[in-house]
Amino acid sequence: MPFRLALLLRFGMIALAVLAVGVVLIVSQASADKQDNPPLIRAAQRGNPWINLLDGKQLSSATVGGLGRGKPLALATADFDEDGMPDLVSGYETLTGGVVVLHRGNVDAVYPRVRGSHPGSSQQPFLPQPQVVETPEAPQWLGTGDFDADGHWDLALAAPGSRTVWFLPGNGKGAFREAEEIALPGVVSTLLTAEVNRADGLMDLVVGITGEGHDQDNAKLLVFEGPEGARRAEPEVIRLPGPATAVAVGHLDGDFQLDIAVGAGRELVIVRGRDRRLSLDRPCGSH
């Protein structure tokens, strides 16, 4: 009898140990799944005239330069005033077209009590009195880069259904000169600014275009790049199987050239980066 009791106790202890290990494994797996698949954050379907920043501060955008309440469309960032702090550009649709609002980053928020500090603004991420610039069209897409190779950050923008890309040249002091335009041989379907092919320190411009009514037979990708900047470059034309709705750039095949990935209709098109443009890949002496 004592032998049977001891045997039962030993089996009971083993069973409890196995059960405890199983509970630990289940809890660990649930924790790992929670980290790998974080809960989705869903935005409420209501208007809110604020831009919520990551540090909890709020930047009012209830009115756009006295033009009334605008519909927010896009964001971009660059150091337009060349003070070492990134600035924020936000694009809005208005009743008369569109505007971009430039909020200059505040150096004092990161490096307080430096020379040229603004009294009372050390806790604010942006300087007061943002600059508001009216645009010919609603800026559905915004991109930043030095598009004229003058050493200053510029702004590129486009609207859906338009046949134009607009450039706002920067002056390096936190302001823009008069808008310039590039006429396109089709309707804009997407826009991206990024380095493509061999990196040269100048942002390039990638634009997806279609024919009228998203004509798939005329879907193309235009790549503006060159040593004098994208603004002065003749575009490379890449035919697509469908309208480009999304574009991304990255190292996709392991070499140093930057490749382009295009969502074109139901297909994903990869344009492999090269050391130079296709238009330059001609044998010496050819015409």
Short synopsis of the structure:
The protein is mainly β. It contains one helix and 17 strands. Strands 3-4-5-6 form a four-stranded antiparallel β-sheet, with no helix packed on it. The protein has a four-stranded antiparallel β-sheet with strand order 7-8-9-10, with no helix packed on it. A four-stranded antiparallel β-sheet has the order 11-12-13-14, with no helix packed on it.
Order of helices and strands: HEEEEEEEEEEEEEEEEE
Mean pLDDT across all residues, rounded? 78
Strand order of the largest sheet: 3-4-5-6
Count of individual helical segments:
1
List keywords for this structure.
287 residues; mainly beta; four-stranded antiparallel β-sheet; 33% strand
Description:
- The protein has 287 residues and is mainly β.
- It contains 1 helix and 17 strands.
- The strands form 5 sheets. It has a 4-stranded antiparallel β-sheet with strand order 3-4-5-6, with no helix packed on it.
- It is globular, with a radius of gyration of 27 Å.
- The model is unreliable at 16-35 and 278-287 (pLDDT under 50).
